[in-house]
Amino acid sequence: MNLKTNGVVVSLAGRDKGKLLAIMRIDGGHVYVCDGKERPLLKPKRKNVKHVRALQYVLSSEKTVSDPALRKALLEIRGHMPKESEV
Questions:
Q1: Residue 61 class from Cβ within 10 Å (0-12 exposed, 13-18 middle, 19+ buried)?
Q2: How far apart are CA 25 and CA 12, in angstroms?
Q3: Torsion sign, CA atoms 69, 79, 30, 37
Q4: Structure confidence at residue 81 (pLDDT)
Q5: Cα(45)–Cα(73) distance, integer angstroms
Q6: Residue 55, φ and ψ in degrees, nearest 5
Q7: How many Cα atoms occupy the beta-carbon half-sphere of 77 within 13 Å?
C-alpha cells in the first residue's frame, strides 16, 4: 500500500466506510485523515492503515489549506471514479 501525505484513500471500515478521505499525517500503523466536512482539518480522524485503501490521487498543498477547498477536491475525484457497478 502506497500511503503518502495529501494522498486520497477510501475508508474500508467504520462509520465513514466508502468515503473519500485525505491523509494529513502518517504515524506508524495509523493515518490521520480528513474530509473537510465531518472531519475538518483541525480534527483529523485516526484510522488504522488496514482500514483504508490508497488511490492513485495526491492532492496539492493548495487543496488541503481549508475545509471548503478539501471538500471540493474530494468531490471532483469522486466524480472521476467509476461507479461500483462498473468495477
A1: exposed
A2: 18
A3: positive
A4: 79
A5: 18
A6: -105, 170
A7: 22
Cα–chain-centroid distance for residue 50? 14
Q: What are phi and psi of 5, to 5 degrees?
A: -60, 135
Q: Grid coordinates representing 73? A: 477536491
Residue 53 above 80 pLDDT?
Answer: yes
Whole-number average pLDDT of the chain:
91
What is the pTM for the complete model shown?
0.87
Question: Which of the 8 DSSP states describes residue 66?
Answer: S
Residue 47 vs residues 21, 33, 35, 70, 77: alpha-carbon distances, Å: 11, 7, 13, 18, 21
CA atoms within a 13 Å half-sphere pointing along the CA-CB vector of 78: 13
**Residue in this structure with the C-alpha cell 457497478, named with its chain if needed:** 85
Indicate whether 85 pLDDT > 80.
Answer: no
Nearest to 66 by CA among 30, 22, 31: 22
